[in-house]
Design goal:
Layout lengths: L9 E4 L5 E2 L22 H10 L4 H8 E4 L8 E4 L1 E2 L5 E2 L2 E2 L2 E2 L7 H5 L2 E7 L5 E8 L12 E2 L1 H7 L3 H14 L2 H4 L6 H11 L2 H9 L7 H4 L8 H16 L1
Helix pairs in contact: 1-2, 5-10, 7-10, 8-10
Length: 241
């Protein structure tokens, strides 16, 4: 297999490799990275953001999320809405910074790092990190030394990575790699179980979904959104594969 080709401003870094970076309101480019971007949302991103905004999942999706699916896409993709202000600014950014900072998406936490996670044949997750150096970012002129582990811990990325790694075997399933296409109903189930958690719980409680029997013993635990998302991932495996 040919080595992965990375853009000129992206470099792969080792776990223990040090780099200098810090972001805070006194950096003169503060919030520049919150503009002119397409911010893809993972299921766990949506879970945290809908909790932070105190909206149910359907209201959050309707108000803040753009759903796209090109003809070649197996699964739909979800992006955070940007403001039409000439800068395509994040809907949650203000002059003082991020208004949903405690629940900001994983990609925002990771920046300027990027993390790739690949499912191996034994279903183990293999990860590697890259560092993105964009001309507008002056955080690299600060003095704070980082490593991938230190920065990930400081940004609270572990829980985001945990849930992303749970979803990866679903997105990278062997049947998907072999060209499996989803029906409209399967796509509906994908959106429901991963992104529209409150509607998913409601339909499970009303016994409107297949594989209903496996929910009965977990109903109490699934009052917690994180537990419901984990259940939804397992439920989708059963439904799709």
């Amino acid at each position: 297999m040919a080595p992965l080709q990375l853009p000129e401003n992206v470099n792969r870094i080792k776990d223990d490799e040090a780099f200098i970076f810090s972001c805070h309101p006194k950096v003169d480019c503060f919030t520049d990275c919150c503009r002119q971007l397409e911010l893809a949302l993972t299921p766990y991103d949506v879970l945290r953001l809908k909790q932070e905004t105190k909206l149910d999942s359907r209201a959050f999706l309707d108000q803040y999320v753009i759903q796209e699916q090109e003809q070649e896409d197996v699964f739909p993709r979800f992006y955070l809405t940007m403001v039409d202000d000439g800068q395509a600014s994040c809907v949650f950014v203000a002059k003082t910074g991020c208004t949903v900072y405690p629940s900001r998406p994983g990609a925002c936490r990771a920046y300027p790092m990027g993390r790739a996670a690949m499912r191996k044949n034994n279903n183990q997750i293999e990860e590697f990190f890259v560092l993105l150096k964009e001309p507008h970012c002056h955080g690299f002129q600060e003095q704070e030394e980082q490593t991938t582990k230190r920065y990930s811990k400081g940004q609270g990325l572990q829980i985001y990575n945990k849930f992303n790694d749970k979803v990866a075997p679903l997105l990278q399933h062997e049947k998907i790699r072999q060209g499996m296409q989803l029906t409209e109903k399967q796509i509906e189930f994908f959106i429901l179980a991963l992104y529209d958690l409150d509607s998913f719980r409601e339909q499970l409680d009303c016994e409107r979904l297949p594989q209903q029997d496996i929910y009965a013993s977990k109903k109490e635990a699934c009052k917690d959104d994180e537990q419901l998302l984990l259940f939804g991932i397992d439920w989708l495996h059963r439904i799709l594969f």
